[in-house]
Amino acid sequence: MSVRPVVARRIDCCYDAFVPAAHSIERPKDRKQMIVLKFGGTSVRNAAYIDKCLDIAVRRIEHAPVLVFSAMSGVTDALIELAALSGAGDADGAGEVLSKLRSRHFSVLDSFGDAGPAAETRRALTDMFDQLESLSRGLLLLRECSSRTLDAITAFGELMSTTLVAFRAIQRNIDCTFIDARTVIRTDESFTAAVPDMAATRASIRAEIKPEPDSLVVTQGFIGATAAGATTTLGRGGSDYSATLIGAALGAREVQIWTDVHGIMTCDPRIVPEARTVAKISYAEAAELAYFGAKVVHPSSIQPAIDESIPVLVKNTSDPDGACTAIVDHTLDVGVRAIAGKKSVTLVNITSSRMLNAYGFLRRIFDIFEACRTSVDLIATSEVSVSVTVDDTRALDTIVTDLRQVGSVSTEQGLSIVSLVGQDLWKDSAFVAEVFQELRSVPIRMISLGASDINLSTVVPDESFFEAIRKLHSRFFGPG
Ligand code: ASP
Ligand code: MG
């Protein structure tokens, strides 16, 4: 994943991470001070959590927050199931899914009580469920579900969660404007994976969303519309992308992603219980970690923030004052940021004496991987051999057969990648020595160092995976 090089603007402080809570913060004089808060599905999982989100937003209300919400947790999956069952002609199954969704949303509304515009909200929700039911009935008749219809259905998850949130805000006397994201996120017609038209989206965000101090804007993640007005979605997990698009268009001071974990950790806590939150990490470092399944934020989903050098904070809705991670343009601290790993990769070695002083060998090798749509992760080469790791082995047999045209081939399974990610690690060769000192009892099958100055990767047997990670973690982050 390539990330744009460091841009001139430096972010010295991120509001939430570094401004002491007791300090009164100056009111924003222009939009540049505004912030975007994105709340994921688990953050709106029930009525109590919706209140937590509003509490978090109210504490920051002088920064004119724009709130971007996912559907309640599990709702997008349920809507996809509804569409699939309807398209397959399973009326009973579809009816069951629909009635569960209905009771889940109405029970949240009920638990908020009758104050405020409860009746209007009930009508709005009823209307949405009527539409969903009609769509489902249409699919049951047609026995098909196009991606266009699927988007029309899944969009209701976000429309319903935000309807409940906006209602609750009004009920609590919080000044709040509801924006239907389909009026601002303008996309192409690639339903289920729509691509925003950046210029049009930016212009309509600026025209429609007017953040004001002491007031909230509530809108949906994930959804958009084509120029002709058809509902689209940006793809699963697309709410982060919506949030950073809005933040970039409005020149937000920061985008906060509120989720159910304490940001990015120094290691997977299931492997190393002493793992702790990384306070600050660069976009490029976060991108390296994303490959290893640090799924907290995906680099492509925060690209609009990266393009504008807007810091992205990852915070925990269940523990708003707890540890969090700031993902920033660049950090000034040299050192290991995190250790990550991936089990069960396969090493493919290609050796040929014809490679010596020849050219075009690598191209021939990579053409074979490309033809088999298999992504190569780590690479090491010598004059007469090339070693690569692959994660996806579905096409391995074909790949090996084709590679035999180029040289002799061997494969090794049951290996793991263990990577250290951090800035400028390799400028200090003592560091590299420390890594290998720590791994002296681990049989290392391959090393990839120097391809990027922020990643040192080793390939070790699966049996040594936990040992290697724990040793490195305790060496570079201490026992806890
Ligand atoms: N609700 C959508 C999904 O579950 C989008 C999101 O949560 O980001 O994929
Ligand atoms: Mg989500």
Task: Provide an overview of this structure.
The strands form 3 sheets. The chain has an 8-stranded mixed β-sheet with strand order 3-5-2-1-8-10-11-9, with helices on both faces. The protein is globular, with a radius of gyration of 25 Å. With 480 residues, it is α/β, with parallel strands linked by helices. The chain is built from 14 helices and 17 strands. The site of magnesium ion has 5 residues, from loops.
The total domain count is: 2
From the 3D structure, determine the CATH topology of the largest domain.
Answer: Carbamate kinase
pLDDT averaged residue by residue:
90
Distance between the termini: 31 Å
Name the CATH architecture of the largest domain: 3-Layer(aba) Sandwich
- Determine the structural class based on helices, strands and strand pairing: alpha/beta
Strand runs, count: 17
Indicate the low-confidence ranges by residue numbers.
1-31
Kindly provide the radius of gyration, computed on alpha-carbon positions and rounded to a whole number of angstroms: 25 Å
**Considering the protein shown, what is the CATH homologous superfamily of the largest domain?**
Acetylglutamate kinase-like
Text of the CATH class of the largest domain:
Alpha Beta
